[in-house]
Amino acid sequence: MTTASDMLGGRSDTAAPAAIELRGISKAFGAVQANRDISLSVPRGTIHGIIGENGAGKSTLMSILYGFYKPDAGQILVGGQPISISDSQTAIRAGIGMVFQHFKLVQNFTVLENIILGVEDGALLRPSLSKARGVLKQLAAEYQLNVDPDEVVENLSVGHQQRVEILKALYRQADILILDEPTGVLTPAEADHLFRILKGLRDEGKTIILITHKLREIMEITDNVSVMRRGEMVASVRTAETSPEQLAELMVGRKVLLSVDKQPARPQAPVLEVRGLTMVDIDGVERLRGIDLDIRAGEILGIAGVSGNGQTQLLEILGGYPEKGAKVSGDVQLNGAPLPLSGRGCDAGQRRRDGVGHIPEDRQVEGLIMDFTAWENVAFGWHDAPEFNKGWLMDNDAIRRDAQAKMERFDVRPRDCHLAARNFSGGNQQKIVVAREIERNPDLLLIGQPTRGVDIGAIEFIHKQIVALRDAGKAILLVSVELDEILALSDRVAVMFDGRIMGERLPGQTTTGELGLLMAGITDTQNTPAEAGIPPETTHDMPEGRA
Amino acid sequence: MDKMPKWADVILTPLISLILAMGISALVILAIGESPWEALKTMVQGALGSSYGWGFTLYYATNFIFTGLAVMVAYHASLFNIGGEGQAAMGGLGVALVLLYLPLPHWGLALPAAMIGAAAFGAAWAFIPAILQAKRGSHIVITTIMFNFIAAATLNYVLVNLLRPVGSMDPATARFPASTNLPSLTDMAAAIGITWGRNTPANITFLVAVLACFLIWVLIWRTRLGYQIRALGRSEPGAVYAGISPVRITVIAMLISGGLAGLMAINNVMGEAERLVLNAVEGAGFIGIAVALMGRNHPLGILLAALLFGFLYQGGGELALWTSIPRELIVVIQALVILFTGALDNMVRMPLERLFLTMKRTSRGAVK
């Protein structure tokens, strides 16, 4: 890609040296070539998107820019000057600022204290704090970056915490701002606000590198976009001259179906009926505040919402393992029989025997034991199943045979059931979990974040399997923070906010804007599902309003 | 992700660690003006050069196998049981009570009965820390080590005030009935016409220990309970998702662990001393931690590591007897072995992994 800098023009003069330029960067971890001969040129005053599947090498490249890794080969130029970035301090001095996906803030410090952390001007804090206060006021006015400087960080919303991260970088005089998957934790409205901030920063001459796997964001905000695949930079193009389809194809290396191909649902008898489900956690915080839900056989109910609004608790309770010390009340029926919500019968193993499958939100912490082999993971949760046991001993041969067959049917690669789960890519790990849960043919399947950290090719496959299970007449509860995924898969969408269902919509008759408002906790009374043609017993708008 | 071959992981790494530990020990011996070569010769001669030496080496190894297995089972549930010392001491009490108060006409009956007593007392001693960990979150490292002291004090009281025969000045129980004495390996060899050893403490318990290694291997890698123990050890949230009760498995794993540590008493109390004395465990509970670490928490590795530590114990004793190397130095040598094979394991492992990776890459590069 030696032509990258010629091809790409920013808003500013193309003759000026690029804000940042990479030449032939390579980096290997053991036998894995994470980055191979990467060249990239980002003109000053532009927003540059870097897109690629998980494991394509985006994060490695950014870690090299920020001095976390040393490249095996290649050169980095900042403002035309070659520099060697040996640690993050060097990167900061060179004007590079980084906003990580997981914020690096001290939770019980105030915003101001976080901002001066590491750049205090002396032994006493007061002068630094008052200086920072001035700078902060100015930045806030300039870029709509309003945050209360004296608020303790843990009291801030996720969107505001992200602003603190950006302010931290700007306070350190960053000219080049790198954001790693910045919208993963934001509501659509918060994301819009972030994009306005970024555009403002660009117009002031800052350079922004945006790492994401969301095509929509790339199209919406970037000037140029580079696509990474398997450690290589496969293309750099002007955003205006490309399309989401083309980018997806470049990312995966083949044509991809971006929408989910499915017939209208034919819902039958109700499978899951939830009434007034309430949960108070061990600290006395009310996590679920009277949830009502119905799912019929042969339909997918999607739960949209920013993570942390009770979705995890809902999945755990239905899955039979409420948090330690939590008080759960309400009425949950599966196929007309009540499910115990506490005590002896409330057990994840019993739920499985009752016909509830569960693809958990975090496959690396819950769904799989990462050190176990693939075959051991195929028995995970089902280790009591008679076909996996022979008297006192586990029938390891039978489990291996089953694992091998599942890996065949779900195209898990590499097709080696003796490999530890951690040695598979995210998509293949998820396929192992999906195969295990779907092939048990559960009456109700709970799904949390089915495609988080999964590459596009595997997403397509997993979505197909979910729809196939629905068409086989099973009830599916889908929780995802990816609004696109919810809209593509669900037959009905319920929005969760602060432990409540804010409303239900039909995916074909709503907009992301409307759902975004609900996700932010703003209820409206228009466009109720009843008017949209859903039988009245399945509507659960909350007329009583918010506390 | 490429890894180095398994043989390098399980054999080469500990071997290199061992050689490093021996090298530094040699330097220490040189520094006090003795010959490391002579010292090594004395140790090998004393521990492995005669059936007499072997008898002691196997006796010590038997102790370490049980305490090593105890650490291993708890480790797989991600519990660090450093209470083997106290659990083994209580196991001794269990053995003593069974043998002193039950009429057992033959060792063939006495052995299983004493094993039940030993395991039950060891397990009971592990139960309280286990339930505190499982239900209240009290850290098992803290509670098990406190229970070592409580066990020592309890035993002291019981021996001095309750079990000491009338008129005896020695804080120990009476001798166990002669009918319950276990056959020594020497007796057993003689029974099949082989003359082996004389007056050595090694007894049938060694075979029980080897059998225990096999059974624990089956338990951990072939049974449902073992699967649940390993799953809980690797990820507690995962275990909860899979319907495995952390409380139940934590308690069961600790009961098995404590039972194994308690079983050591079959060897030292029933097989060797034939009565219960103070401080019968002599630190074997702690050596078990090193044995489990060096043995990679696998029964076969534990068997081999226990033999090595048996050798160090017996050879070290000989060293103190025949050279002017002080007894304290043997502790230094043992400590070095523990340090290199246990604590500094990654120091050897990581360069070795890199070496194998480069070798692999160059050979693969040639193919490409």
What are its keywords?
heterodimer, A: 547 residues, alpha/beta, Rossmann fold, 3 domains, six-stranded mixed beta sheet, 18 helices, disordered C terminus, B: 368 residues, mainly alpha, 2 domains, 15 helices, globular
Helix and strand pattern of chain B:
HHHHHHHHHHHHHHH
CATH class designation of the largest domain in chain A: Alpha Beta
Strand content of chain B: under 5%
Low-confidence segments of chain A: 1-14, 526-547
- Helical segment count of chain A: 18
**Count of all domains of chain B:** 2
GO molecular function, one term (chain B): transmembrane transporter activity
InterPro entries (chain B): ABC_transp_permease (IPR001851)
Keywords (chain B): Cell membrane, Membrane, Transmembrane, Transmembrane helix
Pfam family, one (chain B): BPD_transp_2
Structure overview:
Chain B: Pfam families: BPD_transp_2 (PF02653). Chain B: It is found in: Cell membrane. Chain B: Its main location: membrane. Chain B: It is a multi-pass membrane protein. The complex is a heterodimer of chains A (547) and B (368). Chain A is of the alpha/beta class and 547 residues long. Helices cover 31% and strands 24% of the residues of chain A. Chain A has a 6-stranded mixed beta sheet with strand order 6-7-8-3-9-10, sandwiched between helices. Chain B has 368 residues and is mainly alpha-helical. The mean pLDDT of chain B is 91. Chain B is globular, with a radius of gyration of 22 Å. The two termini of chain B are 19 Å apart. Chain B folds into 2 domains: 67 residues, no CATH class; 252 residues, no CATH class.
